[in-house]
């Protein structure tokens, strides 16, 4: 079993809340994130396995805003 991190994102793409959940596979973690999305009150959840992003469920109102913040932090996409 692997411990995954769920990062609940605000409309601006910033992390608002983090949770840990144990799942057997990446697919199971993404399915759990979809279920959690229905009750968490945030527009999107990123799913991570340590330093590897597994995927994102939901959507942000302005995803370009998130990319702009990444560029300003000195990282390139």
SSE topology sketch:
Blueprint: E1 2-9, E2 15-23, H1 26-40, E3 44-49, E4 52-58, H2 63-72
Antiparallel strand pairs: 1-2, 1-3, 3-4
Can you walk me through this structure?
With 77 residues, the protein is α+β, with helices and mostly antiparallel strands. It has one domain (2-72). Helices cover 32% and strands 39% of the residues. Strands 2-1-3-4 form a 4-stranded antiparallel sheet, with helices on one face. It is globular. The model is unreliable at 65-77 (pLDDT under 50).
Notable features of this structure?
4-stranded antiparallel sheet; 77 residues; globular; alpha+beta
Nearest-angstrom radius of gyration?
A: 13 Å
Residue fraction in strands: 35-45%
- Principal-axes geometry comes out as globular
The helix count comes to 2
Domain count: the total is 1
Residue windows where pLDDT falls under 50 for at least 5 positions:
65-77
Overall pLDDT level: 84
The main pleated sheet reads as: 4 strands, antiparallel
Q: What's the order of the H and E elements? A: EEHEEH
Name the strands of the widest sheet in spatial order: 2-1-3-4
Distance between the termini: 31 Å
Overall number of strands = 4
Q: Give the % helix.
A: 25-40%
Structural class: alpha+beta
């Amino acid at each position: 079993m692997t411990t995954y991190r769920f990062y609940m994102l605000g409309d601006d793409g910033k992390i608002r809340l983090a949770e840990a959940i144990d799942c057997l596979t990446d697919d199971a973690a993404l399915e759990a994130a979809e279920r959690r999305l229905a009750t968490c009150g945030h527009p999107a959840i990123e799913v991570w396995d340590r330093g590897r992003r597994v995927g994102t469920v939901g959507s942000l109102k302005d995803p370009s805003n998130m990319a702009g913040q990444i560029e300003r932090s000195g990282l390139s996409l």
